[in-house]
Amino acid sequence: HVYLLKDIKALYILLHCKHRDPSVADSSGYTALHYAARHNHVEAVKFLLDFKADVSSSIGVQHKLVQIVTR
């Protein structure tokens, strides 16, 4: 859910407190990292990477991830 990516506190609760995997894909095959990169949610991208989101599963947005992480 794109709206969730704007709320780092909610992401923290899901990933840390609820022990969710940040690399799980939705029914379209996209992960939270896909959505965060695609919608330029820099904080969310960095946060998801800190929680070990799988970058290799983010085919199609890897170039954008590099741009965001190097900001």
List the helices and strands and how they pair.
Layout lengths: L1 H4 L2 H10 L14 H7 L3 H9 L11 H8 L2
Helix pairs in contact: 3-4
Which descriptors apply to this entry?
71 residues, mainly alpha, 54% helix, 0% strand
Structural class: mainly alpha
Q: Distance between termini?
A: 24 Å
**Strand proportion:** under 5%
- What's the gyration radius in Å? 11 Å
Order of helices and strands: HHHHH
Instruction: Label the overall shape.
Output: globular
| Uncertain stretches of 5 or more adjacent residues | none
Mean pLDDT: 78
Helix content: 40-55%
How many β-strands, per DSSP?
A: 0
Count of helix runs = 5
Q: Could you describe the largest sheet, including whether it forms a barrel?
A: none
Short structural summary:
This protein is mostly helical. It has helices at residues 2-5, 8-17, 32-38, 42-50, 62-69.
3D structure, described in words:
By secondary structure, this protein is an all-alpha fold. It is built from five helices and no strands. The protein has helices at residues 2-5, 8-17, 32-38, 42-50, 62-69. The longest helix has 10 residues, at 8-17.
